[in-house]
Design brief:
Layout (H helix, E strand, L loop, with lengths): L8 E4 L10 H9 L2 H12 L5 H10 L8 H8 L6 H10 L3 E9 H11 L3 E10 L2 E7 L5 H15 L6 E5 L5 H6 L2 E5 L3 H6 L2 E3 L7 H4 L5
Parallel strand pairs: 1-2, 1-5, 2-3, 5-6, 6-7
Antiparallel strand pairs: 3-4
Helix pairs in contact: 1-2, 1-4, 2-3
């Protein structure tokens, strides 16, 4: 589908939205830091601590992991129910699907491509001599970066902001949800449910289709 043909843009969060998992926690399993990382993740999603700070702290626990760990993590990823139906429905209606993630390109790139996602953006982990350094390479995809991605993709596709939809579950999604014309809280934290236009409580993303007047 050409960008010029896009009728609307739907942007999804990745961890705990597009997929069931929090990728940083799967990586932390391999590093032996899962309890610490899970606690920091939960506090960040509730909005109790700054996302960029929380990501820096969590990624630091991964220092020394072999880069091959990404292959193991990809095999453990569980795509959320209804994702293929949602993507197919959006494409049939002439829309574009974007995914913007506080997670990592090393995991998201092959997954997004295999699902038929049109645009995606995430963080990149630094590695030296085949091992993670415990740092993020380049800018961090935080709440404002997610909002910018939605605006940039809409501009590129010629989609008015009035025809954008954002779906997320945590505090890091609030800025892009506020930027979009329609915000959908998906199995979200209380703060996000309260801020969203619509809240979905189940774990099936095809439930977004009726909100757009579409069928699965």
């Amino acid at each position: 589908m050409s960008a010029q043909a896009a009728r609307f843009l739907l942007v999804l969060d990745a961890d705990s939205t597009l997929i069931h998992d929090e990728v940083i926690e799967l990586l932390a399993d391999a590093a032996g830091s899962r309890p610490l990382v899970a606690d920091i993740t939960e506090r960040a999603m509730r909005g109790e601590i700054d996302f960029a700070q929380s990501l820096t702290e969590r990624v630091a626990t991964l220092a020394g992991l072999e880069a091959g760990v990404f292959d193991e993590v990809r095999e453990r990823i569980r795509v959320t129910d209804g994702v293929p139906e949602l993507i197919a429905g959006v494409h049939r209606a002439g829309g574009l699907i974007g995914v913007v993630s506080g997670g990592f390109h090393e995991v998201l790139d092959p997954l997004a491509a295999s699902l038929g996602v049109d645009r995606w953006r995430a963080n990149r982990l630094e590695s030296v001599d085949g091992r993670l350094t415990g740092a993020v390479r380049g800018g961090i995809v935080d709440a404002q970066a997610k909002a910018r991605a939605l605006s940039e993709w809409a501009d590129e596709a010629g989609v008015p902001i009035e025809r954008t939809i954002a779906v997320g579950d945590g505090a890091n999604d609030l800025a892009m949800m506020e930027r979009a014309a329609l915000s959908v809280a998906f199995n979200a934290k209380p703060r996000v449910r309260e801020a969203a236009d619509v809240a979905i409580g189940g774990r099936d993303l095809s439930q977004v289709l009726p909100l757009l007047g579409l069928r699965g």
